Amino acid sequence: MIRMRELRKDFTVRVKAGRLRRTKRTVSAVDGIDLTIEPGEMVGYIGPNGAGKSTTLKMLTGVLAPSSGEVSVFGLTPVPQRTRLALRIGVVFGQRSQLWWDLPLGESFRLLRHIYRVPPAEHETRLRRCRDLLDLDEFLDTPVRQLSLGQRMRGELTAALLHGPRVLFLDEPTIGLDVVSKQAVRSFLAELGASGDVTLVLTTHDLADIERLCDRLVVIDHGRVVHDGSIEALHARYGSRRSLVVDLDEPLPPDFALPGATVTGSAADGHRVTFALDGTSAGTAVAGLVAVASVRDLSVVEPDIEDVVARLYQAG
Ligand SMILES: Nc1ncnc2c1ncn2[C@@H]1O[C@H](COP(=O)(O)OP(=O)(O)OP(=O)(O)O)[C@@H](O)[C@H]1O
């Protein structure tokens, strides 16, 4: 349903070449991306700053024309068929608003209903759902310019969904939000995705968004795809390991070895030891430990996605 083939976007930028001279340089923001996204998928599109995420979303939504290659969304070519496409997609770009700044939030929704010519009953049903799930009622009468960032983002999400799009493109939907608003936005998107009605494509620097929402992770760097798969596949590829953290009554003897586990940390004078589980289960490692040491407490720590992604960016 979303298809990109050898998609490229180059920008020509002027760069300083001496005190007065400027020369032109070409930046390949998107450098040959091939991706297909099927209906109902929830795709996290991540990458370091300047990797080309926003540029890709702009080409998918018809804001920017590609330099070369193909892009289609529901069989439509975004730039020439932008008006038709707009009826089928929803867009939330953290930096840009689709709401009317001086009008109460509810008025923006009414205007959008007219613009998209949504039948009143459909509009009411969708709005009701957003009002309930995003707790909009207390600020529906507030002018948009007076809304907090979190309130505005909830308004933006509603505005993007009122015409019943089948795909929602989100550029940094939780940026700058407090913990509670982030959770509200994530729960809402999770529910939307789980319903299977809407395909989600989101860029974010907050990997908790990805862990909570996405079953597929596409990582780009310098305009190219460097990983495409599940979060588990990412961990498998980069050798992420679970850790076992144990609190001991006495430090372990210096020559202590636990098959399939490697000591990666020691604290509290050797009373707290961390093992990376390379080739054994947590259960086997714990059994091996309690046979030789007095274990007071223990916990198993899942691999951290931040670590894996940091390694991936560094490798890139
Ligand atoms: N209008 C433009 N003119 C010139 N260069 C641009 C333009 N837009 C983007 N770029 C360049 O293209 C590259 C990709 O930018 P893009 O905004 O797509 O990255 P991003 O992955 O969204 O980054 P971030 O995480 O910082 O938002 C960067 O090098 C950027 O400087």
UniProtKB/TrEMBL annotation:
GO terms (BP aspect): response to antibiotic
Record key words, sorted: Antibiotic resistance, ATP-binding, Nucleotide-binding, Transport
One cellular component term from this protein's GO annotations in UniProt: plasma membrane
InterPro entries membership: AAA+_ATPase (IPR003593), ABC_transporter-like_ATP-bd (IPR003439), ABC_transporter_ATP-binding (IPR050763), P-loop_NTPase (IPR027417)
Glycosyltransferase listed as a keyword: no
Protein's membrane topology: Peripheral membrane protein
The protein, known as: ABC transporter ATP-binding protein
Entry's localization field: Cell membrane
Protein source organism: Paractinoplanes toevensis
Domain ABC transporter: 15-247
GO molecular function, one term: ATP binding
